[in-house]
Structure formats: structure tokens, C-alpha cells
Amino acid sequence: MRLPGALQNDNRSNGDEDQAALAESVQREIGPLLEQLKTMRAREGEALEAILHSTLDRLREATEGVAGLRPEVEERYQARLTERLAAATGPEFNRQRLLEEVAVLVERSDISEELERMRTHIGHFRELLAAGGEVGKKLDFLLQEMNREANTLLSKTGGIGGKGTRVTELGLAMKSEIEKAREQIQNVE
Questions:
Q1: Is residue 112 scored above 70 in pLDDT?
Q2: In a domain, 175, yes or no
């Protein structure tokens, strides 16, 4: 209403009377229109929250799916390392030294921290949604962190075959859900 010319009528015949009538009409209609806008935005926010909760549910399911596969993947990784080291060292190798090296490599490939951080991020995301208010930037930041966890998980489990292939599928599903959520977050203040 403060914009220059916003309440001016192009019809210059009655001038001030038309101007006053237009201003009065705008004043009368603006309140109900703003209430309608608020109602529409509230409904849109509720729908967006439901979409994001569904996305988080799928992300949690993928995370738990990876967690369920973790023991088998670690065993497969350890067996693969043992085979490679045995082939490289021949029949004369120090089994204790081999086990120590395998333990170090298995520790580096452990995905338990990534899974726990993903669970924590999902929980924090839900808390922010429930709290309401201006949370768009915080949610976007959490999604960036979730994406990093998914990337790390994928890099640690790549190339091990067997159940590792399923972990890769679940990790890619996580990334897909995170990207869907990021698109939705663009609509959140």
C-alpha cells in the first residue's frame, strides 16, 4: 500500500473521490485476504511437514537396513583382507601381525559412527520440525550433514561385494531421500 501509485486509479475523471474509494476498498479487503494467506500457508506447512516426516521415515529405514547388514559386511571385509594379505605374503606370514593389520583396516572401515550420527541427525531434524518457527536454514544444514554421513558410509563400504552391494543400494537411497528433503526445505522459512 505504501508503493507510489499503488492506490491510484487510472481513471482521472473523479480524481480524489476515486482515490479515496479505492483506498477504502483496499483497507476493507486486506485483512480477510491476509487471513486467507495465513491459513493457506499453515496448510502448506502442515503438508510439507508430513512429506518431510515420510522422507525421514524412509531415511531411518535405510539407516537401520545398513545397521542390520553391518556385521556381515565387516566379516566379508575382514575375509577379503585376509585373502589378499595371505596371497601377498605367501605361506610364510605372521598370523598375529596379519590379524593386527586386519583389525586396523576393519576399524577404518567401521560404519557404526556414521550410522549413529545419521540417527542423531534424523532425531534432531524431527525436533526442529516439531518446534516450528524459522528453521529452514537449520534443516538445510542438517541435510548437508546427513549427506556427508551417507557419502562416508558409501566410501567405507564400496567394493566389498556380497552384502556390501545392498549397503551401497541403501546408501544411495539415503542420498536420494536427503536430496528430496533438500528440495522441500527450499519452501521452509
A1: yes
A2: yes
